[in-house]
Amino acid sequence: MGRGEIHGREKTGEISQKYSDEEYLDAVREHEPAGTSEVAEAVGVERQSADYRLRKLEEKDRVESKMVGNSLVWMVKP
């Protein structure tokens, strides 16, 4: 398996995640405001995997994003 994030399937058919939400949140905190590539490198996943998980965290209201110039950056919500 490469550096991607999908780790395996649980008995429920859900894909388990190799890295926890907290690991992503820690990476965002470390680089805040954090670019997707910075988070990906800190966690150890491809940029596309980090983008997917960050968007899921945004849906859960754990992070927020905003455009700075041509870049999307992420911040942990208080």
Automatic annotation (TrEMBL):
Gene3D superfamilies noted in UniProt: Winged helix-like DNA-binding domain superfamily/Winged helix DNA-binding domain
Alphabetized InterPro entries for the sequence: WH-like_DNA-bd_sf, WH_DNA-bd_sf
Chain intervals for the UniProt region annotation (Disordered): 1-20
Composition-biased stretches (Basic and acidic residues): 1-13
Superkingdom, taxonomy of origin: Archaea
Protein name: Transcriptional regulator
